[in-house]
Amino acid sequence: MSNFYVGSEIGQLRRVLLHRPERALSHLTPSNCQDLLFDDVLSVESAGKEHDAFANTLRREGVEVLLLHTLLAETLAVPEAKEWLLSRQVSEHRFGPRFANDVRCYMGDLSHQELASVLLGGLSYGELPIPSSSMMRGMHDKDDFIIKPLPNHLFTRDTSCWVYGGVSINPMAKQARQRETNHLRAIYRWHPTFAGESFIKYFGDEEKNYDLSTIEGGDVLVIGKGAVLIGMSERTTPQGVEQLASGLFKHGQAKQVIAMELPKHRSCMHLDTVMTHMREDTFSIYPEVVRKDVKCWSLTGDESGTVNVKEEGYFVSAIEKALGVGQLNLITTGGDSFEAEREQWNDANNVLTIRPGVVVGYERNIYTNEKYDKAGITVLPIPGDELGRGRGGARCMSCPIERDGI
């Protein structure tokens, strides 16, 4: 078995992938941030410092931190990987043959670090220092993007997710995030840490149009004991869930997938923004969204990849049964109804568990953190005044690559 194994949401976290926000944030403006799926314009320096505090908190707890920018730059040092990525991210269909060739020539001459920076952080027409006779140049203003920034790469949880002994390289729902997937495909294929290792790729590694089969890692909770809990949100479709479930069953990596329906709105973009696993029998939950009547299905299957679907009643009972625990302890968002809504918006329910009963969360969510504390959950607080404005907490910003089971 390879070292890449994520057996739960709560076992000891050993290795994690983060992305320190840099150039992409400096390209965000009030007029373009909505298009780029960001709710706000962040202070680049403060967000970077807060992210460093997050990474250092993990390191102090013995977690190895891999950084996306570094992995991407090291992947680009492999000639085949660099050629593959440039031909995908600067394709003739996107730019026309003439301009694609000019842009690729320019980008191909950059250092691996600079090239990674441009692929992650974007390039405007005004920043392209070479002439081009292409019509594209004449048709665009200097502030238009040739390569759009990918500010949502900050949320490494979504683009790929490790489930037991393999990874799903997720086809993303929104165009503003679809290029992220190619970066992860390249890293998992060519980066020395992953190349030649034996791990399964369940879904999403092939280059094809996945149509409506989209899935994002923020909706995928590896609750352990062979079970996976997946939210069907604004970004994760039933079609995507069935595809991932089929891959899990085909490789004998999971016994059951529990799929639950979420409302399709911004404040609960992914399941992990309204529910996370903190200890074997304990979840944090935002009750306004995760109500008793949410629809829930149980998916099972075998090595043929066939998926059998059965509607379940109350999702909590389905989880209790899958985990073999008595009654689940659900810790609801803290404060009165106003404070709870504010804290949920600031990701009070989106915490990253480092080991059972020890979680990382934003220090600003004082009412909810107090409730966690009373329930015997230790919160390691991190600053999030800037980072939190990107609408994602510690779980959103982390992609566990190695974690113990329960």
Task: Explain how this protein is built.
The protein has 406 residues and is α/β, with parallel strands linked by helices. The protein has 2 domains: 5-67 and 151-403, L-arginine/glycine Amidinotransferase, Chain A (5-stranded Propeller); 71-147, Arginine deiminase (Pentein), CATH 1.10.3930. It contains 14 helices and 20 strands. A 5-stranded mixed sheet has the order 9-10-11-14-15. It has a 4-stranded mixed sheet with strand order 1-20-2-3. A 3-stranded mixed sheet has the order 6-7-8. The longest helix has 17 residues, at 44-60. The chain is globular, with a radius of gyration of 21 Å. It catalyses: L-arginine + H2O = L-citrulline + NH4(+). Belongs to the arginine deiminase family. It is found in: Cytoplasm. This is Arginine deiminase. The active site is at 396 (amidino-cysteine intermediate).
Which properties best describe this structure?
Pentein, four-stranded mixed beta sheet, 20 strands, 33% helix, globular
CATH class of the largest domain, anyone? Alpha Beta
Reported CATH architecture of the largest domain: 5-stranded Propeller
According to CATH, the homologous superfamily of the largest domain is L-arginine/glycine Amidinotransferase, Chain A
Give the strand line-up of the largest sheet.
9-10-11-14-15
Number of helices: 14
- Weakly predicted, low-confidence segments: none
Query: How much is the average pLDDT?
Result: 91
Q: How many domains, in number, for the residues?
A: 2
Quaternary state of the chains: single chain
Number of strands: 20
Q: How much helix is in the residues?
A: 25-40%
Shape: globular
Radius of gyration: 21 Å
The percent range for strand residues is 15-25%
**Terminal Cα separation, in Å?**
17 Å
Largest sheet: 5 strands, mixed
